Amino acid sequence: MNGSGTRLTLGVEEEFVLADPVSGATVPHAGAVLARAGEHPFAAAGGRYHRELLGSQIETATGVCGRLEHLRRQIRDARLALGAAADRERLVLLSTGTPVLPGPVPVSDGDARFAAISRMYAGVVDDYQVSGCHVHVGVADRDTAVAVVNHLRPWLPTLLALSANSPYDHGRDSGYASWRMVEQSRFPGSGVPPALPSAAAYDRAVERLVDCGVLADPAMTFWLARPSPRLPTVEVRAADAVATAGEAVLQAAITRGLVRTALDDLAAGREAPRADPGVCAAAVWSAARYGLEGPAVHPLEERKVPVPRLLDELMARVAPALEETGDLPEVRALLAKVTRAGSGAERQRAAASGGLRAVIRMLARQTVRTDPADRETA
């Protein structure tokens, strides 16, 4: 484990919501917080902030990273900077898949695309304050990206279960670990993507949905993994917005391990496993419903299994790639921390014994935690 193996480049996009620290309700002040924040701490390396569809949301994007410690620093420092800017506006920055206590929030002003999306999807996006953690891993070209996605399909539900951090819907416990995924399933082009033979086939599939009038544009798909429409990367969007920076690093490291393993399979001529779309949909639903508490659906064996078994299989798959780059000890430590403390959804529910505002306070602390390794989860 000398860490000398080839490291695929990676980056992470995180979405956050802004809330009033007293009422706990989300507020449409993204513009003011972004003005306070100024430039991303790693702007010179490509880091940036973005407004999102609704005025309560902000997205951060890291620059291109090779080593996990560089990625961790960019994630942590962006959270700290945005959290400080929110504090100066007397607000809190929260990393959660859905708000605990949402407030009335309009679509962001001045963006024609956001306005078109709002008109197309009507009531579905009126209060669509869901947030995710998206991981980008660099690959050679779009055909390779599509081939890699075919190999990732069975593992996407487990990535969701590991990240589940959205149990609340308008102040009520939804009973789900990831209500975000339920919200997202209301859109066309969601869930595990279809297995496709090439980038051209992928583009035709997306354009067909655009021509049908159910996607605003080719960048609008909600599939949990895809070739990025903007970057030479595989973009994996299975995860809820995770509470801590360490959990974001965990998602990124495992995702890169999956992509590296898929590339090795492709080089060796090994075909992607055939995962039935209906069973994949069942696996996504089960991951959203139960998170790490299980049960889970095994996409390949097509039956109910305990979640720890799928986590063990996931780690067995990525361990050689992680060992090659020297990341395996850190990933094992981060994973053990999450499984011991419980998913974000479990931690939110535990905090709710002190009321929903206690959940807000916990999320605000975890979002900007300053532990250098970002390994404390609760």
TrEMBL record:
GO terms for biological process: modified amino acid biosynthetic process. Pfam families: GCS2. GO terms for molecular function: ATP binding; glutamate-cysteine ligase activity. It catalyses: L-cysteine + L-glutamate + ATP = gamma-L-glutamyl-L-cysteine + ADP + phosphate + H(+). Keywords: ATP-binding, Ligase, Nucleotide-binding. InterPro entries: GCL_type2/YbdK_subfam (IPR050141), GCS2 (IPR006336), Gln_synth/guanido_kin_cat_dom (IPR014746), YbdK (IPR011793). It is an enzyme of class 6 (ligase). Coiled coil: none annotated. This is Putative glutamate--cysteine ligase 2. It comes from Actinomadura viridis.
